[in-house]
Every structure is written in C-alpha cells, then in structure tokens.
Amino acid sequence: MDLYDVMRTTGAIRQFTNDPLPDDVLERILDNARFAPSGGNRQGTRVVVIRDRNTRESLADLSVTGARRYLAQQRIGESPWNPLHPSGASADDLAAVEVPPVTQPLDAAVVLVVCVDLGVVAALDQDLDRIGVVSGASVYPFVWNILLAARNEGYGGVLTTMAVAEEPKVKALLGIPDAYAIAAVLPLGKPVRQPTKLKRNPVAEIATRERFDGPAF
C-alpha cells in the first residue's frame, strides 16, 4: 500500500475474524517495525508474543481494574485516568460499574505485550512537576510501526493500556523484569471491517505559527 494510504486508514481494530496471523507474517511485521527510532538508538524495546488462550484470558481479567475506573469516571463526568484531575470516583462508584467483557485479547489471532527497558530511556522530563511522557519516545514509535505494518499486511489491531493498571501482576504473569515498563498490549488479527476513512481534526486546528497562541498554520 502507499505510505500515506496506510497512515490515513490505520484505525483502532477491536473486532476480528477467525483468520490466523501466521508466524511468518508476524515476523515480517516486527522485522519492519524494529526500524522505529529510539533515544540514542538504544533499542530498549521487547515484545512478548502471546498465543496461549489461558494467558490471554488472564490478560483480559487484568484489564478489568483499569476499565472499571475508566467507566466509573466517565459515568460521573470526569476525564478518565487524567493526571491533572484526580478521580473523585468513590468505592461505591467503582462497585456500581458493570464492566463489559474485555474480549479483544481473546478474539485476536495474537496478542503482543510491548515493553521498554527503563534502564536505557532518556526521560528528560523526570524532574518536572508533571507526569512523565518523554520516555515514551523510545517505545511508542515502535508500537505505531507495528500497527502500520499490520495494516500494510491486511491485518489490524489496537493499542490498549488497561492492563497497565495491574502492571505488577502482568509482569508476574509474563516473567517481565522489574527494570521494564509495559507500554502497550496489542491484540492483532484480521479485521472484520477495515476502516477506509478516519476522522481527525484539520491541520489548521492542530498547528500554529511560531507560538502556541500564534496564527493557524
């Protein structure tokens, strides 16, 4: 596919057919995705490829904690999991939420858990009085390359993070060392329907000249 077509049609795929994603195709996806940039070219990313049904069921179960708080906050008008606005959701609010089954890890042909070695990232924002985001530059280009490459191969997936709320348990489940952080859980498979047109804000709404409050680009 044309690069721009891939970029404009790589949507979040949450429904999959029963088609397999063969190892040779997945290896090709990862082989191309690995050329993503990382800080100092340290390449601190690791991928756990999960096909075992029991492991995927455990990942789905461990996603419930994050999903429960997300839905509870959404229900009371909060921006879920937002670091600038602490949650006012009570224990009763959380208990009242019925979390729909987390099916993506179960329905997908394969699940990838993408990790980053915190021992090699450059977190230049670590001393700022805000949530850290800069270290993500060493892992999320790789994650996005996986989704772009999957789209190019006729497959699709979705970047999920709900399981990260239970990171210690996920690490124990998968044998992930303490020095690594879990950046994403990616269910991949053949889409039931591949989006052909995504909705995004126009350039004039996201880019300005010279200053944040400058004229629209």
TrEMBL record:
CDD domains listed in its UniProt record: Nitro_FMN_reductase (cd02062)
Name of a matching Pfam family: Nitroreductase
UniProt keyword annotations, A-Z: Oxidoreductase
InterPro entries: Nitroreductase, Nitroreductase-like
Source organism, top-level taxon: Bacteria
Gene3D superfamilies membership: NADH Oxidase
Residues covered by the Nitroreductase domain: 12-190
Family: Belongs to the nitroreductase family.
PANTHER family: NAD(P)H NITROREDUCTASE YDGI-RELATED, NADH DEHYDROGENASE_NAD(P)H NITROREDUCTASE XCC3605-RELATED
Name of the protein in its database record: Nitroreductase
Organism annotation: Mycolicibacterium frederiksbergense
